[in-house]
Amino acid sequence: MSGVILSLGLLPQHAVAAVADEAARGVELHRKGEAVLVFRRPDGQPAAGLPVEVRQTAHAFRFGNVFRPRHYTNDFYRARFKELFNFVSLLEFNWGQYEPEEGRPRLASRLDFINGWCRDNGLDRFYGHMLVWTPQRQDNSGSLLPQWLFSHPPEQRTAQLRRRIEREVRDYRDVDIVWDVVNEAIHCRRWGAWDKPGWVDEPIPEVVPYVGDALAWAHAANPQARLLINDYRVIPRGKYRQRYAELIGRLQQAGAPLHAVGIQAHEPDRGAYWFSPEEIWEACDVFGAQTGLPIYFTEFWYTSDPGRTITGSYRQGQWSPERQAEAIEEFYRIAFGHPAVEAIIYFGLTDADPPGYPNVCLLDEHDQPKPAWHRLRRLLREEWTTRLTATTTAEGEVRFRGFHGAYEVRAQEGPASWEFKLDLQPRGRGRWEFILAPGTSQPGKSK
To answer: Is domain 61-383 in CATH 3.20.20.80, yes or no?
Structure first.
């Protein structure tokens, strides 16, 4: 399917099926690995006929949702997040919210959340949204750029920005965090163009310098940090996809430290546009396969509002909770099947506390699961989670093909039992040996 361009419009069913089939093959090929488990007695002899249970406990793929500071101590929110997600999108890193008073960044509470509840619950991968965003000084949700910045002369503001980027990246150097370094550069005025409207299509050659500088400053502050840029309305064909591809290409040609491509999957029409499978796959080819960079779907949602009309040329009619569920499942299947995709962040957990747009979350305004929640749970926790029971062969082996991630292995023989752990990563075939010593509970030895 890669490289095959289908005419968009009302896609024929065979074209939709072709993309769906390619994605299903991609899940099997790219999201799973071969595992061979060998069980031995303390004397080295194979343990034949041994009952074994294998249970996946975590995914290597990043399935994310959002946390704002107001959610850090919300027990209901935290519990629901843990049911489905393993990747934390940390919102309100935008400058005005993170440092509303000059010199007083909101560092302590965020690190307490990361090093406390998150790590205690096995959540150790994060997305930092965002370091640079230039459209305006203030909106109803709080300052996008801090008001105090504009008390400094214009010639000093770039130096302030550099200090801000370097400080944040240094402060979180011990956290596995992927940074949204520059947000929506193809839609916003470039840094320093304060006489222009906040939302304007700047010429790409004029955008490249400030984006490249921001990436370079972040990289210098922590060379191990993973950095991306992030933008919207780039899944459908059109000028914004072309503009984004041009920006990424120019940054790569200039040697900028760009490690991933962020794509916001809610535009056009703020969740009312139903992306066709071909559009999703083609965008993954353009921004992933052709750039050599992994893709992070950083902000994805569809609406469930029956009062809104489905837009785009793929589907027709009105949205509903059931159609939202269908569209979300389809998107996850296509994106998960493309080898370039590394993360999908659903942007909103509950309509009782929405991310700025109504009726786009997975729980309703009463915090009850929508059909989309149930569909996603079946997909992530059942279909895409590996569990099996088996009996070892005469050679003491159990073989399986499972989704990449962390596993617990339990072996039982009469009253004796043993527990082991292993990590099946995207490195092809893996072999682990386990010794059935008394009281054993240990990680497997990969061979």
So the answer is: yes
Is there a contact between 230 and 178 (Cβ–Cβ < 8 Å)? no
CA separation for the pair 226, 96 (Å, rounded): 23
Quick: pLDDT tens for 339-392: 999 999 999 999 999 887 899 999 999 999 999 999 999 999 999 999 999 999
Round the average pLDDT of the chain to a whole number and report it. Answer: 94
Q: Structure pTM?
A: 0.94
Distance CA 246, CA 240 (A): 10
pLDDT digits (tens, 9 = 90+) for 29-71: 999 999 999 999 999 999 999 999 999 999 999 999 999 999 9
SS (H, E, C) the chain: CCCCCCCCCCCCHHHHHHHHHHHHHHHHHHCEEEEEEEEECCCCCECCCCEEEEEEEEECCEEEEEECHHHCCCHHHHHHHHHHCCEEEECCCCHHHHCCCCCCCCCHHHHHHHHHHHHHCCCCCEEEEEEECCCCCEECCEECCCHHHHHCCHHHHHHHHHHHHHHHHHHCCCCCEEEEEEECCCCECCCCCCCCCCECCCCHHHHHHHHHHHHHHHHHHCCCCEEEEEEECCCCCCHHHHHHHHHHHHHHHCCCCCCEEEEEECCCHHHCECCCHHHHHHHHHHHHHCCCCCEEEEEECCCCCCCCECECCCCCCECCHHHHHHHHHHHHHHHHHCCCEEEEEECCCECCCCCCCCCCCCECCCCCECHHHHHHHHHHHHHCCCEEEEECCCCCEEEEEEECEEEEEEEEECCEEEEEEEEECCCCCEEEEEECCCCCEEECEEC
Closest CA to 312 of 322, 302, 299: 302
Question: Domain-by-domain residue ranges, the chain?
Answer: 33-50+392-446, 61-383
CATH top-level class of 33-50+392-446: mainly beta
The sheet carrying 32-40 orders its strands as 397-403, 32-40, 430-435, 445-446
Residues near 153 by Cβ (< 8 Å), separated by ≥ 6?
A: none
